[in-house]
Amino acid sequence: MTARPGLPARPTFAGGAVRVFSLSLGEMLWSRRTVFLLLVTGAPVFLALVARIVQGIGIVPLRVNGAPVDGPSVFGMMIWVFFLRFIVPVLGVFYGTALLADEVEDRTITYLFTRPIRRGAVLVGKYLAYLLCTSLVVLPSVVLVYFLLVPLGQVARTFTSFAADLGLLALGLAAYGAVFALVGAALKRPLVSGIVFVFWEQIALLIPGYFKRLTVAHYIQALVPHAMPSDGAVSLLQSVLTDNPPALVCLLVLAAVITVTLWLAASTVESREYVLDQ
Description:
globular
């Protein structure tokens, strides 16, 4: 069907997504959620700063079995514990489930859907804005933690793993954001369901067998380029968490998760009727 004379042509799906992305990015960067994001990502930076100060006065900040743990190992532990196990999933929940839920709560979704843009493109544009917004805060936080913990003389040796960390965190934000975008598009109260899913993942990772393969975290953690410091309890925990599939399999599974869940989320938005509460 051709556009009527005198009326602008309806944008393509990609063009509509880009328009929504440019509109949503500024809103996300100046939203209350970004304050929460800064607080969450600031905690590891604060801990790294304290460790640097303690180390500067001659005290070893961390020991395992009496042996001091070097800066790269501490950084690797923080990637495992703080970023991959907590920050990335939590940000995926709070941002991904809110891509459309906020519009419904603010009663602006009707005006958003009256634009000459496909509904699915609206969700994809908001998802891309989420991905850039969170990356602009999380990745600089990781950079600060890295240079606070790793001595300059060890940067050259560890930089490849550090670059892999940045890419892995971006991949985790993309995967969790897509999963929770689907949750937000399909459910009326998505935040609670998202939080339950995150807790379920942590439990599933500790259950022996194939159950952990149903989690996003299993495939993300299998790509981590660090080994945690060797200690009895920590080594046992790592042996449970690192029954790892090959890296190529992990990348293909995560790519499939992002593609399929984002497509399902866009399709759900296209077909769902959003009824505003009175």
